[in-house]
Design brief:
The structure is a homodimer of 407-residue chains.
Chain A (H helix, E strand, L loop, with lengths): L1 H7 L7 E6 L12 H4 L3 H7 L3 E6 L9 H8 L11 H8 L8 E12 L6 E4 L7 H14 L2 E2 L2 E7 L4 E7 L34 H17 L8 E9 L6 H5 L3 E4 L3 H9 L3 E2 L7 H11 L5 E6 L1 H7 L3 H19 L5 E5 L16 E6 L13 H4 L5 E4 L3 H8 L9
Parallel strand pairs in A: 1-11, 1-12, 2-14, 9-10, 9-11
Antiparallel strand pairs in A: 2-13, 3-4, 3-7, 3-8, 5-6, 6-7, 12-13
Helix pairs in contact in A: 5-9, 10-12, 11-12
């Protein structure tokens, strides 16, 4: 699909913006979804002139992680390009990564007991501040620099999050990074062992086991951040860039490390945003409008409030986005696409498999099928229910950037 | 897909029931379908709180056999796991099967003439009674025990149906069982020859030819059951169990041999049903509720009446099911899924390719899209139109048994 679409790409310049409202989709709670409850006059107006549909991020019934869902939106088959959370976090934190590095996403956590009797009491160490995080990282880095000849580097993230980079002396295969996540995803139980999933990952598994023991000792005087949960073990993936595939100069306007990471992975230039509000992101879009063809504009808070089960605040983020939309439309993009990467129903407090509404506004839109940017309205549209990895087909088609297929 | 889903399965326990109303889907006859015509107050109420969709059993436009359609519902790709009718019937009749056996589904039939001039006059020998069947099987077994060193065993089924087991002295490959069915599917014509489809099945083909000749001679004094039509030549397939794939303790509540067979094939425990009514099946469900995680509940008569073109009786089966539904809902399953394996429109008197309505009721359902459990209403739902093999994704997702895919 990927190659096919790339071969059809024409050398036509268009201005495209893709808004991803993270986790925007919902389920009725109790009668209406977040999108159905939100007052969105600008969106309502835009939808009436847009082509609509709903995308299935990965496959029917599969709930995606954010990385996989985003790859899909950018046109990559998420089943072929499975990218670990470790690499995404690292890229988002501007960590320099080579093909000799193994990246791990870490959470500081609180545990009691020792050895085989360790019990996790808080998976996020009470969400310590970023300042505390930086202090604890310094302790770790001063005490752990090398395990069995492999260099160890710790990089602080936001709150309880950090990245650990293992620096090998040779190129790594992706199979070597296949290690079981240690996060048990509940408290009151022991962490999982970082077992190797295949023979090739045995060596790495042993290093990780040692790493965790050393960290436990190094953090013994900490009250909250006295343990770590590790996941997303991953190496640098080979992935063609948006530029090489479609000739698009692509930029990202994001405020969270992981999304910056994934945008860099596909060759986008992350643009500087002054502040973290949607308004400041729109300001960046205005300022950089002339410099790029394709803008990926990511709004995080819809997902965060969905995960917290905060129905009202999720609605407010949607309404806030709606208020900013008028300014964006004045820029006169050739194609405006608005969707989410997946659903995060407030009722479920988690990502879900439910389809995500999509609208595409261009002069080529088949409009008139849907009245609002909601799950139920958009699924009626002419794009129908489709796999997320095909969204880029539609976007490029609306931008008149794809040649005819076949004679 | 299979492996992917299996890898994502979490160790969470849920109570799931999957109702399969065999051949429940229809086409307008003349204005409404069977489901549209039926009075179903309980279903109507349930649908309003359920996620809905419609499944394509195999692929667009392909009409499935029951075995293939069921495999699909249980999450197996029916194009990869092609299981013969012979093996399904044999398992349903509790025949012990090893990898050295070749199974054949047989119908007693009526023929006139001999040799190349045999003409089939009744494909089901006037639907002889099961008692007659047993008597005739005894005659066959007394006269035919061995062909070219291959053991021959006959097992009576219901009415005109039987199973023939050929016992080889070595393990068989599935290619060896690829033989043309002899049923011409019409009367007044000769049977088809049991030709080999490839070189590897030549030997078996010769044995079958001899078998048919010997049967014709053995039954020469029978008036009705004086001939046989053979089909579904098959060997024991390798198929992973539901338990091994998803950690579900699965049971089947079925009243027909073939469906018992297919449920055993995927590792379900067939439960004893006292009688053959839906009511007695529900009684079994109640009694065994605590002992299993997943119940496959099969209702046969919707299909039988559809095949007979009996629109009114098919409606009655649906209405009868509706009456039993309240009792089931009192059991408080985490997930209730109701669908069919395929459509059997009374107007067509046969299986068809038309999509089959699906509802899934759980606390995670996106409801509010469909008003009734009918073809037209369900297809509007948030599961959309999807391939049957993905149904299990949705069921496991609703049961919160699948982890996120990707980072």
């Amino acid at each position: 699909m990927h190659e096919l679409r790339s071969n059809l790409t024409k050398d036509k310049k268009s201005k495209i913006v893709l808004f991803v409202l993270d986790g925007v989709g919902g389920i009725p709670y109790p009668k209406l979804t977040e999108l159905e409850s939100a007052k969105t006059p600008s969106l309502d107006k835009l939808v009436k002139k847009s082509e609509t549909g709903a995308h299935i991020p990965i496959l029917s019934g599969l709930t995606p992680g954010s990385g996989a869902a985003h790859l899909s939106l950018f046109g990559y088959d998420p089943l072929s390009y499975n990218i670990g959370r470790g690499i995404l976090e690292a890229l988002g934190l501007d960590v320099h990564v080579t093909d000799k590095d193994l990246l791990i996403r870490g959470n500081f956590s609180t545990a009691k007991g020792n050895g085989a009797k360790i019990i996790i009491t808080d998976r996020r160490a009470g969400r310590i501040t970023t300042e505390t995080n930086k202090r604890v990282i310094k302790i770790l880095q001063s005490k752990i620099k090398n395990i069995d000849g492999v260099g160890v580097e710790f990089i602080p993230g936001l709150e309880h999050r950090f990245v650990c980079k293992l620096k090998f002396k040779r190129k790594l295969e992706s199979t070597e990074s296949m290690i079981v996540d240690t996060d048990p995803e509940e408290v009151g139980v022991p962490p999982l062992a970082p077992k190797n999933i295949n023979k090739k990952s045995l060596k790495v598994s042993k290093i990780i086991t040692k790493l965790i023991s050393l960290i436990r000792i190094a953090l013994k005087n900490e009250k909250r951040a006295n343990y770590v949960l590790l996941r997303g073990f991953s190496v640098f993936p080979k992935i063609p860039t948006i530029q090489s595939l479609y000739g698009l100069r692509a930029a990202s306007i994001v405020t969270y490390p992981m999304y910056k990471g994934i945008s860099k992975l596909v060759g986008m230039t992350p643009l500087r945003v002054k502040g973290s509000s949607i308004e400041s992101q729109v300001q960046t879009l205005k300022e950089e409008f002339d410099n790029y063809d394709f803008f990926y504009f990511h709004i995080k808070k819809t997902d965060s409030f969905g995960e917290d089960g905060n129905f009202r605040e999720k609605i407010k983020v949607i309404e806030n986005f709606d208020k900013q939309l008028e300014k964006v439309l004045k820029l006169r993009f050739d194609v405006v696409c608005i969707t989410g990467d997946h659903s995060t129903p407030s009722k479920m407090k988690s990502h879900s498999w439910h389809p995500v509404p999509v609208i595409i506004n261009s002069k080529n839109s088949f409009y008139g099928t849907s009245k609002r940017f909601t799950e139920k309205e958009c699924i009626k549209g002419m794009m129908g229910l489709f796999e997320g990895k095909n969204l880029m087909n539609f976007i490029l088609a609306h931008a008149e950037m794809l040649s005819k297929f076949g004679a």
